[in-house]
Amino acid sequence: MSVPLSEHAQQPHRSESDDLSTLASISRLYPYLRPALPRIVLGMFAALLASVVSLTIPMVLQHLVDGTLLHRGGSREAVVFAALAILGLGMAEAILISLRRWFVLQPGTRVEATLRNSLYAKLQNLPVSFHDKWPSGQLLSRAVGDLNLIRRWLSFGLVLFIVNVVTIVVGFGVLFYYHWLLAIVMIVLSIPLWIAGYFFERKYHVVARRSQDQAGDLATAVEESVHGIRVLKAFGRGRYALKGFRAQAEELRGTELEKARAVAGLWLWLLMVPDVAFAVCLALGVWLVAGHQLTVGQLLAFFATATVLRFPIESIGFLLSMTFDTRTAVDRFFEVLSTPNDIDDPEAPEHIDAPRGELMFDDVHFRYEDAPERFPDLVDGITLTLQPGETMALVGLTGSGKSTLTSLVPRLYDVTGGAIKVDGVDIRDLTLDELRTRVAMAFEDATLFSASVRDNVLLGRPDLVGDDPETRAAADAQLAEALEVAQAAFAYDLPEGVDTKVGEEGMSLSGGQRQRLALARAVAAKPSVLVLDDPLSALDVDTEARVTERLKRVLAGTTALVVAHRPSTVMLADRVALLENGRVTDVGGHSELLARNEHYRFVISSLEDEEGGFGYEIEEEVGA
Question: How many CA atoms lie within 13 A of 54 on its CB side?
């Protein structure tokens, strides 16, 4: 499926993170990193000791050449002693490197888990309006790819970067110890490396950000194609989807090649400059030895030390690219984490002590925040009161605001004007936990989770989770009642009964079965206010009639707001509210509205007539 690139990939992304330096950007991880710092510091200390040990080996070689071999005739014992000393230092270096890995691996995975938990919690907390705008692939790439990159940098890149920089500084100090002129030449010839690194950072950060955003877009394309596989196959559009996917994959490939060229350009300098420096220093060193300004042992030790420094210098290239990739990953992580949440718990929440189920809409308005000013409000000044235990149907043509109004009750979106009250309390003054305990909702597009039937139906009843016999018995009773009301007894005939996993999004079930389980979930929550957004649309007429009959019994003590797309659903209600262009234009019983409201008769006649003879019923009631 050809999916347009996200906002991030279509144009240069600009955020507050762009104004931060790499160090300042990455330092935002400190609160998550703080518990792991002791072990990471110990890992750095072990790595530094390993570097010190490796820098000690050239000193042993100098002592061997200038002392034992030159002045003592090269006795076997002295050579063996020097060899054993080098062997011991090498083993100590290996042990210290192993300790470094042991120290840093565990805290790195712990930090990654903490970051991932924080991101998931934030995604659960952010309002629906956020998820409406963000492609799921972008969020998935942040939760998996970006956090994995941060973990690898903490466990490997950060430690090696700091240790190698310190090793280079100490190593150049050792080079000065052997001969100041050779050391200065080595430093001067290394200046191009730092210039190349500066320009590399400026270019690589932009390309790395574009690459990670495009990877998120590609993940979105895969996810949409997998979820829409039935549609693609039904319309024979698999090749079309593949064509779009290839275009996005090719664009990502081009960006990755651009990254690779940037890294290759840096590696050119990292490999060429040390070789040139070695050659110049070798020629100068031989001249100094010939002039008796430098001993052979010192020259050997100088180049042995320079060889030890070669890996730290060369590693700067991939460690820089890894650091800049991590900086981009941190920026992308905090883009989500720093997103403000306008739908949150109040600072001083109120509480409903004796829930009755009264639902009141008081001059309610709603419009999306990015809607053009010339567009009218989707909900435009609705005032409506549902008495405790009353069932009210919302009826209107497509686009009249029915589903939008129901989404405001559990605060999936917040009103932009007026107030919605439950039992006299503004829903914005309740905690989200309490509000969504008092209010349950069933959607037309039933969504199930990759879990058992039991877990899906009892999702809104955390009080029934437990393995003790009493809780289990109460859960079984509530489950049986909810399935009976929703006419979902088919669940007991599944391979493992109600403990059968329904698969991703419940796609192993039919649309009607998913809808009945979603309805059972809303019923099992035992809310004081039940919001039903046409939850019976996928049911046949006979099944709907049975469900409707049982819902009447269940709704006897529950206030219900029902979006009606079928005449039979209207018959379930005590009263009907007629919506036109986001406004309630009439309220009354079904027969009353048929008799007095022409637009209501038009709306009812336009509803799908699955019960047969409904047009005759309209004429009969109007005539009466």
Answer: 26
Domain ranges of the chain: 20-214+258-337, 359-608
With residue 254 as reference, give the H or E element that holds it: helix 238-290
Q: What is the pLDDT of residues 225-258, one digit of tens each?
A: 877 776 777 667 778 788 888 888 888 888 888 8
pLDDT score of 527 more than 50: yes
Full DSSP string of 507-565? TTS-HHHHHHHHHHHHHHT--SEEEEESTTTTS-HHHHHHHHHHHHHHGGGSEEEEE-S
Q: Please report the pLDDT score of residue 450 as a whole number.
A: 81
Q: What is the DSSP letter of 378?
A: S
- 11: pLDDT strictly greater than 70: no
- β-pair type (359-366, 417-422): antiparallel
Report the distance separating Cα 223 and Cα 110, nearest Å: 28
For residue 504, count other CB atoms closer than 10 A to its CB.
12
Lookup: tokens for 581: 């262009």
The span from the CA of 511 to the CA of 446, in Å, is: 8
Q: Provide the CATH number for the domain formed by 359-608 in this structure.
A: 3.40.50.300
What's the one-letter identity of residue 254?
Answer: G
Burial of 462 (0-12, 13-18, 19+ CB in 10 A): exposed
Gap between the Cα atoms of 27 and 392, Å rounded? 54
User: How far is it, in rounded angstroms, from Cα 400 to Cα 395?
Assistant: 9
Q: What angle do CA 598, 602, 608 make, to 5 degrees?
A: 155
What angle (nearest 5°) sits at the alpha carbon of residue 312, between those of residues 310 and 313?
65
**Least confident stretch, 474-488, 505-519, 586-600:** 505-519
Distances (CA, A) of 380 to 290, 362, 384, 386, 563: 95, 11, 12, 18, 18
The residue behind tokens 């605060």 is: 411
pTM exceeds 0.85, yes or no: no
Radius of gyration of the chain from its Cα atoms, rounded to whole angstroms: 35
State whether residue 397 is helix, strand or coil: coil
What 8-state DSSP symbol labels residue 340?
Answer: -
Beta strand 417-422 pairing with 559-563? unpaired
Asked whether the beta carbons of 119 and 143 are under 8 A apart, the reply is yes
Mean pLDDT of the chain: 82
- Kindly report, residue by residue over 56-75, the tens digit of the pLDDT: 888 887 777 776 665 555 56
- CATH number for domain 20-214+258-337, candidates 3.90.870.40, 3.20.20.70, 1.20.1560.10, 3.40.50.150: 1.20.1560.10
Using alpha carbons, select from 439, 465, 432 the residue that is nearest to residue 559: 439
Name beta bridge partners: 108: none
Determine how many CB atoms are found less than 10 A away from the CB of residue 94: 12
Pairing of strands 391-396, 417-422: unpaired
Q: In what order do the strands lie in the sheet with 583-588?
A: 439-442, 529-533, 559-563, 391-396, 575-580, 583-588
